[in-house]
Design a protein that fits this description.
heterodimer, B: ABC transporter involved in vitamin B12 uptake, BtuC, 0% strand, globular
Chain lengths: 278, 300
């Protein structure tokens, strides 16, 4: 695998020989890769491929069977203020008594005891972050009443307000319509570039990420192929990763990954048979 | 003058000068405030069933205390703390494990309560025990209990306010909280302590069976009306105090409603006021939501 950031002083994430088993099942096997400061990496794989597990190991929520994870040179430990995290579909109940700006504020000090004390500095920081994700308009709305795309903006602001070096997003495009999908992707790319944050963006389809990602980390059968899309998303490379023949087809700047010929009718497309936006 | 005139028409004579009423107003308000503060997080965390179960389980403690002649409050508190600990221990984190664990502990405790209440009734040869423990007896509370109640209330509110931000974060997403280094177990146990105390205080006010009404009702009403956690807590406390005081007043007044002079229980009135305010809040927000919907569709 190509390690563009190997040995570099701006290396933010270093995953070495990582293996993870959950309930006796091997989820990740001997995975190694590195990410440099400011890189945007798409973590692509189908459901159950191990994307969430990889993110949880990096966060320190799951212990690996073997191997190491270092973030900005530090081994993982309990709370890591260097990591911002947007979890998979958090169910925000409409009754939840919390405004968008309060949720962003919890990104500063949500782990602390006591009630939040609104200082001018804290409010200014929240306002600035809300503006950065174009959420000022609905800052005073209850989060449960926001649309899926608006909720994702708030979650991104929540994750970035503590100025982390690494941003992990777990399927933030799930359940979004195509327009909100592209908005969220562009937003993450823009804000991450402004703050020089390394992004690990998990998604099951790579097409929305093609315009913005520097490299793709393709995950299948517990293994990862990482590199530029031209290196990784090829018939040879992905066939090796999947352990069977797959075809990579490029149409109108979009990529389709199609399962092997011997499996007629079992077509897997990226994203699964969805019409391209006009 | 006019206010006094209306007052004397609504409030029957002797209301404020009656010692049991004074004690009931003070203790009822304290219990309602605690229930409001803890209740918001109970609803938001989806632990209403756990709250109700604690209340029922507390019945065993309350009736045991009654049997040995100490104040039922101590029985409620002891039993609820133990039950809360056991529930957390048998995996309250997994939703299904939580329901099963709660259900099993609940069944056993209610069985025990059935025995103890039977013994209470036969040994004291009054039927008052069952009614007192299950449905409350706020007018029989002694003012000497006030200091203990204040201490327990401060403890319950203190724990909730100390855990305020981690509680909120873990209610939004357990993963998010854990990733930020919040100990979910610590927060969970801490909150169950506050919940156990709130339920106990509510139990001596309106009874073990009905105490969930004071815990969940004002909180659910406040959640319909507010959009900030802080204001939801204040609103829940205010609604709870209002319902409790109104309940006490109506119960006192009801003595004069019939010629037989049988006052109706406070618990009935409190629960009804809570219920009506919840429905009213629903009508209010329902109308607001329908008025807003077409506009939102236009924006998107």
């Amino acid at each position: 695998m190509t390690d563009t950031a190997e040995g570099s002083s701006t290396e933010i994430l270093a995953v070495d020989n990582l293996s993870v088993s959950l309930a006796g099942r091997e989820i990740l096997r001997d995975v190694s890769f590195r990410c440099a400061a400011g890189e945007f990496i798409g973590l692509i794989g189908s459901n159950g491929a191990g994307k969430t597990t990889l993110l949880r190991v990096i966060l320190g929520l799951v212990a690996p069977t073997s191997g190491t994870v270092r973030v900005a040179g530090r081994a993982r430990s309990g709370r890591n203020p260097l990591i911002g995290y947007v979890p998979q579909k958090i169910g925000l109940d409409p009754d939840m008594p919390i405004r968008a700006r309060d949720l962003v504020g919890l990104g500063i000090d949500g782990h602390r005891f006591g009630i939040p004390r609104p200082t001018a500095k804290r409010n200014a920081l929240i306002d600035e972050m809300l503006a950065a994700v174009d959420a000022t308009r609905f800052a005073g709305t209850r989060v449960g009443n926001l649309s899926g795309g608006e909720q994702q903006r708030i979650m991104i602001a929540h994750a970035l307000i503590s100025r982390p070096k690494l941003l992990l997003l777990d399927e933030p495009l799930a359940n979004l319509d195509i327009r909100s999908e592209q908005e969220v992707v562009n937003l993450v790319a823009r804000v991450a570039a402004e703050q020089n944050v390394t992004v690990l963006f998990a998604a099951h389809g790579m097409n929305p990420l093609l315009p913005v990602m520097d490299r793709v980390a393709y995950i299948a059968r517990g293994r990862i192929a990482i590199g530029t899309t031209d290196e990784v998303v090829t018939t040879e490379s992905l066939s090796r990763l999947y352990g069977r023949h797959v075809d990579v087809v490029r149409v109108h700047n979009r990529v389709l990954v199609v399962a092997g010929r011997e499996e007629e009718g079992l077509h897997h497309t990226e994203p699964p048979s969805r019409a391209a936006p006009a | 003058m006019i206010v006094a005139g209306i007052g004397s028409a609504v409030i029957e004579p002797g209301f404020f000068s009656s010692a049991p009423v004074q004690v009931a107003l003070v203790i009822g308000a304290i219990a309602a405030v605690v229930s409001g503060v803890v209740g918001i997080f109970t609803v938001v965390r989806g632990q209403s069933f756990a709250g109700h179960s604690l209340a029922d389980i507390g019945t065993a403690g309350g009736s045991a205390a009654f049997l040995v002649g100490i104040n039922p409050l101590y029985g409620f508190v002891a039993m609820n703390l133990v039950a809360g600990g056991v529930m957390e221990l048998i995996g309250i984190r997994r939703p299904r494990g939580r329901d099963v664990a709660t259900g099993i502990v609940l069944g056993a405790a209610l069985g025990l309560a059935a025995l103890l209440l039977y013994l209470d009734t036969t040994s004291t040869s009054t039927t008052g025990a069952t009614i007192n423990v299950l449905f409350g007896s706020i007018f029989t509370l002694n003012s000497s209990m006030v200091p203990v109640i204040v201490v327990l209330s401060v403890l319950a509110i203190g724990v909730t306010l100390v855990l305020y931000r981690p509680l909120l974060l873990s209610s939004l997403s357990a993963d998010l909280a854990a990733a930020r280094g919040v100990s979910l177990r610590f927060v969970g146990i801490g909150f169950l302590v506050a919940l156990a105390l709130a339920v106990s205080l509510s139990a001596i006010t309106i009874g073990a069976i009905l105490s969930t009404a004071l815990l969940i009702g004002p909180a659910a009403t406040a959640l319909r009306l507010t959009k900030r956690t802080g204001s939801a807590i204040l609103a829940a406390a205010a609604i709870g105090v209002g319902a409790t005081w109104l309940g006490i007043l109506l119960s006192y007044d009801s003595y004069y409603w019939t010629s037989s002079h049988r006052g109706w229980p406070v618990s009935f009135f409190v629960v009804m006021v809570v219920f009506v305010s919840y429905l009213a809040a629903g009508l209010f927000t329902g109308r607001r939501a329908t008025a807003r919907r077409p506009l939102e569709r236009g924006v998107r």
